[in-house]
Amino acid sequence: MAGTGTNACKSRIRLAVCIAVSALCSLFSFDLNASDLNMAQNDSIVPIKLDESVITAHNEFIKTTPDGYVVAVGGNIETKGKETADILKQMPSLRVTDDALSMVGKDAVFVNMNGRQIRLSGRTLLEYLNSLPPDIIKSIEIIKTPPARYDAEGNIGIVNIVTKTTVLPGWKGNLKLEYGQATYPTYMGSGYAGYTGKKLFFDGTVAADDITYLNNPKYSCYYPSETVSTSNPMKWNTQDAVASLSLGCNLDQKTTLVLDVKLPLYDKGTYEDLANDTQFINAYTGQVDSTLNSKGKSLKNSRAFISGLYFSHKFDSCSSFTASADYLTDRASTSRQFTSSSTAGGIATPIEDYSSSGKMNYDIATSKGDFEFPLLSCKAGAGGKVTFIRTKSDNSFSGSVTASDIFSYDENVQALYFNLSRQFAKWSFKAGLRAEATQTTGVSSSTGESHASHYIDIFPTAGVSTDIGKTGSLSLNYSKRIARPSYSMLDPFKWYISKYNYSVGNPFLTPSYIDNVELTYLLGDSFQTSAYFTAQRDMIGSLVVLDSLDCLSSIEIANNYLDANSFGINIYKSIRPTAWYSAIIQGDFKYQNYHSNRSEFQSISGFGGMVTMNNTFSIGEMFQVTCGLSDNIPGLYNYRKYKNSFQADIGVTFIHSRSGITIGILASDIFKSSSPEYYYVSDGVKQVFNNYYDSRSILLSFKWRFGNWFNRTVCTSSSNDEERQRL
Hints:
Blueprint: H1 2-27, H2 34-37, E1 45-50, E2 53-58, E3 62-65, E4 68-72, H3 84-88, E5 94-96, E6 101-103, E7 108-113, E8 116-117, H4 122-130, E9 137-143, E10 156-163, E11 170-181, E12 185-196, E13 200-215, E14 218-222, E15 226-231, E16 234-250, E17 255-273, E18 277-282, E19 288-314, E20 320-344, E21 347-348, E22 352-375, E23 378-398, E24 402-424, E25 427-444, E26 450-468, E27 472-483, E28 494-496, E29 501-504, E30 512-523, E31 527-547, E32 550-578, E33 581-596, E34 604-619, E35 623-633, E36 635-637, E37 640-642, E38 645-656, E39 661-668, E40 677-682, E41 685-690, E42 697-707, H5 721-724
Parallel strand pairs: 7-10, 29-32
Antiparallel strand pairs: 1-2, 3-4, 4-9, 5-6, 7-8, 9-10, 11-12, 11-42, 12-13, 13-16, 14-15, 14-41, 15-18, 16-17, 17-19, 18-19, 19-20, 20-21, 20-22, 22-23, 23-24, 24-25, 25-26, 26-27, 27-30, 28-29, 30-31, 31-32, 32-33, 33-34, 34-35, 35-38, 36-37, 37-40, 38-39, 39-42, 40-41
């Protein structure tokens, strides 16, 4: 109990420090506007010549839209010495960690470059973005409520990065090398090359990494008469290399054709148990009755090839047509070899060998077309999309029992949409409807069972924004969306992790439906707050089902477990009290309510939140110091109750603008305090998890930018965005 009180006290102290710093900095920033943020860059001042008069205007930093907001980066945010991920950290509602980009109130984020889907995710996505220098970014559009032209799949947000349009022909390039050291060393590198001619243009990126880290999970299950405690430190290693290529041609001034290809050069993952010991402890005596030792190694390989063809034609300034066709094929395999033995009363059982293996094939073909045109006094858009999905998994297990299964899943979706938007005076409106018809079939060879479904859904979206006074604006938006199960969750094969633990899919999963409402208020150029509400019915998840009468039973099963409601408020503040110091402070606080649809899980509700602060100190023209602080407030997150987790990072960057060379060093989690602990209750049994992801590390980076960077980037849009996120 004393330890718990100490942790709670530390949590309150950290939160108080963040709030105090925020309040102190705000005292120096009440009169800040876009001109304060423009001090570092000359191109933020735009001269406009009217006859003999000259008017100087500043770029508008943040502007609300009916479905989100737009942040003008060029001329407003200092990009020297920074990476694209550093710029994203300064955006309202966004959070960037070492291996993920997330958005407040959303389950996932898609990133577009000039409307084109970047077909990467996680760490690979961030590596790609960081291979591009951020000073080519003109603006970043944050779409909290995707309009009807986007897929209705998932509770997602969209980040659209718009680059500067200055066209200068020739080659450009960027090289980046990184070395990291945590428990194990890590190596990363990326290269970018691009060429723009009068008609032809080319963009290519190659990124590779060899990442190794220690994952140290510990978890305990508290049964009425026994406690089951497991320690499972693992060595994780991922090695991958991918090439992304785009080749385009401007057929004329109004017509563009682009071929886009993603080539999997190498993708391998190894997950090795350093130990996997489970102790069965008598709840009355506190003595260890027996120990189960399971030690194994998992291997994963993937080869995902993606190709796409894009066509666009502008009829005039108000009308255009775009079309794209995409094909994805992925051949993945997974295997796990492990041994198991137990010890009781000093007597050990013989070692048993177990083996699981699986092959997964994915084939996804999509095509879509979009037409924009004026209609009466509005801007209209209409289009459609067709999707053909074929997946097949071949799994087997050998040990105390032998089992195998081939599971095939087919899904076809046809979609049509129509939307209208209009802007006049201080008001902007947007509304749309999207209709999707879905047909699915799943067949298991081992059980002989098949499951088919056919359904049609309508997804409305609507948004309105208005200016309030000279410096304020307000927006309100609504959307209905659908969350389909990932393909792996539909597979009914039992995938064993240890002798008694396995995970299993459910081919009878049904889609989950989501309603989103968000109200956003913007004051000036540096303060934004939004209140949001999300209601999700029949939420899909994989939770561990325990049996209070059998401590050996531990099954992770996919199901439509929950109905969830989430009420939240996000606060964003950008400050620059001096020319050499700037900071971004964000706070997200929410109340969540989960109603369980299964008897094993209880309905729960509670508060949760996070406070982050990113500081930048400029020392002369060649050095920058950054300091990032983030604190998870104890509370409820995704059905699990979390304790406090705090992380502090500090970095130093050397910038040599003339040569295009940047050298940096970053120390992450310097207090080694980012160790989340969470728990939930299954069939009356409390299960507590504690995991440390080896986030305390040092990262050295070298970047060299050369050539001509201010070439325009082509605007394309892939058609298989929705399908790829379910892999």
